[in-house]
Amino acid sequence: MAVSFVVKLAKNMSFQRAFRKSPDHVKKAFVSKILSSSSSLDDILNNVPDDLIEFVPNSLLVFGGQIPDLHKINEKSWSPQQAAVMFGDIFTRIENYTMLSPFILQGFQCDVASKLMPGQLSSLVQEVRHQKAILSEEQLSCMARLLIKSNLTTNLSSYPADVLLFSPVSKVEHQSCEMFYTLASQGNLSLLANGSSQRTKLLENALHCFGVKNTSLSQKQLQKLGIFVCDMKPSTITDSDPAILENLKECTDLTAAQITALRMLLASGNTVYGSPASWDETTLEDLGLLAFYINHTIWDSINKEERMIFFRKVMDGCNSQRAFPKAKANLFLKSVGSKPASALRTKRATETCRSAPITSSSLEDPLFIIRYDSAQQLDACLSDEVVKANLALLLEQPLPNDYVAIVKKKLDKSYPDGIPEDQLRLLGFLSRQYSTDEIGSWNLTSSDTLAALLNPNDGAWEMPQLRRLVSRYMELGGSLTGPLLDMLGGKYLCFLDEEELQEINPASIRHAEKLDISTCAQVKKDILYQKAHTAFANQEETRAYYPLIQPYLGGAPVEELKKLARSHVGMDIDTFINLNPEEVKKLRVQDVKDLLGVNLPDLKEVENHPSVAMWIKNNFQSELDSLGIGLVGGRVSVFSTSMGSTVSI
After folding, report:
1. Which of 170, 271, 348, 604 could form a disulfide with 629 if both were Cys (CB 3.0 to 4.6 A apart)?
2. How far apart are CA 28 and CA 12, in angstroms?
3. Which helix (H) or strand (E) holds 639?
4. N- to C-terminal Cα separation, the chain
5. Helices 197-209 & 177-184, crossing angle to 10 degrees?
């Protein structure tokens, strides 16, 4: 397909609408074709459709000597990684932060923000709140540190609630604690790791501030505590005012014990929603995410017609392109759609199909899983021919594990000589049920097939499976391109052998998204860093270099780290603790101070991390004291008066 035709096609609105349903790897390939004729950033802005802009490689967004149209940049829906690459260049060209979109603001960079005057910083943070820009843990931590450093902590209500979650609780004064924790309780608690020191301190201090002494919370206390209720004991759910359900709706996840308590409360009928027997489809929708925690006992007590309406709506949500909690919804559909094992009658040697035989029309029914409500019925009613002809449609259903096993059995029976490649692309979550030996027999020759099999929405691969999958593809002549590296992601990349990593072309790294390689063995980090350093060498003197190279710094030598320290990049603590310990050991105290910048206090929180502890022991205590963050365990200097020499202990 000619590039000129692709560029013209990309501007066709009918094509754009139809293309939205295409898999990501197909979209990336299409954008790559457009980019082959784009020689400047303005060309990219003009030629790549808005819906596909997120698939432009980060490395192509470096301004360099260009002066692109900032108005057009601001109109695009960039990914956080893309925005991070452009953030520094954009900030050198503007003074009015109110013109920035949330997609640009989500690229917030610590080193850029640290150079702002207090008034500018305050305006920027307020704009992040106004635009509802979503920032990462590292960005929010830096932002909180900068606000404290600039003494900008009096106007808390004008800042994002998420920033307050990362503010040191030791800085919260008693007279203002109620306002602070009430505002912070509106943030996204899942940004903080479960069990983390900061998350634990927030809950403890909030409870102390509000005078909470037991697990029985009043409606007024619940309103103040907000999301902090998500971390409280399961007994709090049953002991408190039923209004606690409104708090629980905001919880990203609940523990098994909390879910049990929630079900007890809902089943009791002592809530604003009343007895489950009185619920209708509107009630189920009003429950929000809590509806997905309903078990079979509660589900069966709801009016059948009403629950079927709700089931259909959840199925529609799972199959749509809109934002929807699909993982939770799928678990719910699997749970209530099929009968629990204890409810099934004793299986006969051969069960007959009690419903109509399954056809392509049956598979389009949102209530399919309810109509064929046991694995035995699926087995009896589903023919091998229907599986072959309708595999993709069948796998769109929320199939429980025992159903999946039956589909695999029938598919394998249909293809005794091996599954054809066009069917491999359709396997989805079913692919995770195949052994390494079975994967080793696949005719896996196309990058499109591998990309389809790597779709993260289909579940996780085990390491042996993943390694065999990629090695099989490479055995048959395939290579790992940028889009494939994106599909692999950092975690799966770490599963590969060193020899396979060596075969990756630096250009593939340059055209990949941000890859988290923190779980890789050190030797693999070293390989990937060298390739990334080669890939981004021509951007080394630009503002965009640090966000481009940052994911690969775990393999960086000390010379590179010292160079970054001189640039005052404001490295976050997670990146720091994933650096090569042997290289970190060579850094001076001043190097680390310059490298971390405003994030230096976080070093105290990780002082027991092996690489940090080794670095501390390798430096003089007197120099560590100069940091003013309370690090201990450094070397002590002893001066000999007779020889005039210094002995280090």
Report:
1. 604
2. 18
3. strand 637-639
4. 70
5. 130
**By C-alpha distance, which of 513, 445, 439, 502 is closest to 475?**
445
Cα–Cα separations (whole angstroms), residue 606 to 137, 196, 575, 580: 16, 12, 12, 16
* Residue written as token pair 């210094």: 646
DSSP at 357? P
Q: Cα angle at 67 between 66 and 71, to 5 degrees?
A: 140
3-state DSSP of 403-436: HHHHHHHHHHHHCCCCCCHHHHCCCHHHHHHCCH
pTM, 2 dp: 0.88
Q: At what angle do helices 137-149 and 118-130 cross, to 10 degrees?
A: 140
Residue holding tokens 């489809």? Answer: 281
- Quote the longest CA-to-CA distance of the chain: 100
Q: Which phi and psi (to 5°) does residue 54 adopt? A: -65, -15
Distance (Å, whole) CA 412 – CA 393:
17
Token pair 């409606």 is found at 219
pLDDT along the chain (649 residues), means of 10: 85 90 87 89 93 94 87 94 95 88 97 94 96 96 95 91 95 92 97 94 96 95 97 97 97 95 97 96 95 94 93 85 77 81 52 91 91 92 96 93 95 94 96 97 95 92 95 94 88 92 94 92 98 95 94 98 96 97 98 97 95 97 96 80 49
> Which amino acid, residue 15?
F
Contact indicator for 309, 281 with CB cutoff of 8 Å: yes
Cα dihedral 537, 541, 543, 544, rounded to 10, equals: -10
Alpha-carbon torsion 209, 211, 214, 218, what sign? Answer: negative
Considering Cα of 265, then 268, then 273, then 276, what sign does the dihedral take? positive
C-alpha to C-alpha distance for 291 and 90, rounded to whole angstroms: 44
Rounded distance, CA 449 to CA 420, Å? 11
